[in-house]
Amino acid sequence: MDRRIFISLLVLAPFLARPALADDPKFVAFIQNTIWPRMKSAGVSRKLFDAAFAGITEPDPVVLKLADNQPEFNSTTSAYLEKAVTPIRIETGKTKAQDDAKLLDAIEAKYGVDRYVVLGIWGMESNFGKLKGSMSVMRSLATLAYSGSRKKYAYEQMVSAFKILKSGIVTPDNFDGSWAAAMGHTQFIPSSYVSYAVDWNADGKKDIWNNYQDALASTANYLAKAGWKMDRPWGWEVTLPKGFNMALVGRSHWKTVAEWEKLGLKRADGAKFGSPGADAFVMVPQGVSGPRFLVTRNFLAIMDYNLSHSYALAVGHLGDRIRGKGEFVASWPDVNYDLTYKQRVELQNRLNALGFETGGRDGRFGARTYEAILAYQKKNGLPLDGVPSVKLLQSIQKNS
After folding, report:
1. Which of 105, 228, 323, 347 has its Cβ near the most Cβ atoms within 10 Å?
2. Is 72 a residue whose pLDDT tops 70?
């Protein structure tokens, strides 16, 4: 299950105002007869429960609409990056890096996490605090528990949400976040807050909602616990040598940076790699004809924050642009393959059934799907072009 489930709040801008609620007797009964017994068993008092759900009498239709429509999971990587890594976001990040240099120095020294990645997450999650979310956390979680495919997530987060309310850091009236209950400057879900939030300014409150210093330090703490190491970046855009064995693409082929260099990989910008002993794998987020990346385990630490390759790439790239680095060198390819949506889903389902994990069954082709296609082609003696097609699907059908 994803440890972080959330959406860029830019998508939520048209929906952030809370509408007046109309009573839904079934939903009210669900809160009292299903949610309350679970929360009571988790040690929640009746008084706190009633305060948390006061006035919540109808599921949130925006939550239902967005729950299965996260852009980092259902758009191409290039389209996602275009919306995520914008000139204004880069310039704002540079200003923040300059204005808060001393704070970022201290956080980086304490947690050993690259300040530019922390800034990248801040920019991605709330546009540097401009869009922290104004949807009721408890209503969102109750809606997810009531309908949809995230019921387990909702109940788990609800227990942590009540721990937050019990602490008094927020009240039910101002307990706000995104549709998935992601909160504050860097959009922690409740369980992440309970596990990783810190009181950076020592005022007795872990306030990720109103204190961006606490939020940035909490994010650095999260990434440190996820395994971030300062002796390596998240990764690099690379060029592959002529005749490169495409069967080596993917996370089942970890090698040190030095070993990849011996195989002929070079940075696309012409600079030196550094970090020769760092483990890394080759990733093709939009197919073998698009930009190629050599990513380290720090990339996976970002994915621990949000289990999406597009998101992690956007965070890393935004951080690099704030640092002063340039755009990606290679062009993003067209991905209008000769497959219908139904065929795309079938291709993923059949690859998964054969043991080639695509990372999803939604018809959206990302890094994991391309890795699965290459692995299938390698095993079956097919040309390693990594291209999803009707011909490939027919081959997979025969072998299923």
Report:
1. 347
2. no
Give me the mean pLDDT over the 118-141 stretch: 97
How large is the average pLDDT for residues 337-366?
Answer: 92
Task: Identify the CATH number of the domain in which residue 25 sits.
Answer: 1.10.8.350
Residues ≥6 apart with Cβ < 8 Å to 119: 93, 96, 97, 104, 318, 319, 322
Q: Is position 369 within any domain?
A: yes
Q: Where are the beta strands (DSSP E) in 45-167?
A: 135-136
143-156 burial code (b ≥16 CB/10 A, e <16): bbbbbeebeebbbb
Q: Kindly report, residue by residue over 184-243, the tens digit of the pLDDT.
A: 999 999 999 999 999 999 999 999 999 999 999 999 999 999 999 999 999 999 999 999
pLDDT of 136-168, one tens digit each? 999 999 999 999 788 999 999 999 999 999 999
| Residue 286: C-alpha distances to residues 292, 334, 372 (Å) | 9, 9, 13
Task: Give the model's pLDDT for residue 252.
Answer: 94
Determine, yes or no, domain membership for 370: yes
Instruction: Give the pairing type, strands 255-256 and 279-283.
Output: antiparallel
- Residue 147 backbone phi and psi in degrees, to 5: -150, 145
- Eight-class DSSP state of 345: H
Domain of residue 32, residue span: 9-70+134-191
For the chain, how many structural domains are there in total?
A: 2
CA distance 312 to 120: 10
Token couple for 8: 């860029």
Q: Rounded to an integer, what distance in angstroms lies between the CA atom of residue 29 and that of residue 257?
A: 57
Q: Is 252 exposed, middle or buried (0-12, 13-18, 19+ CB in 10 A)?
A: exposed
CATH number, residue 378: 1.10.101
In a domain, 40, yes or no: yes
Q: Which residues pair with 280 in a beta bridge?
A: 255, 296
Longest dimension (CA), the chain: 68
Task: Quickly list DSSP for 12-76.
Answer: GGGG-SPPPP---HHHHHHIIIIIHHHHHHTT--HHHHHHHTTT--S--HHHHHHTT--HHHHS-
Whole-number Å distance between alpha carbons of 381 and 354: 16
Q: Is residue 329 part of a domain?
A: no
Please count the helices (runs of H) and the strands (runs of E) in the chain.
Answer: 19, 7
pLDDT at res. 69: 59
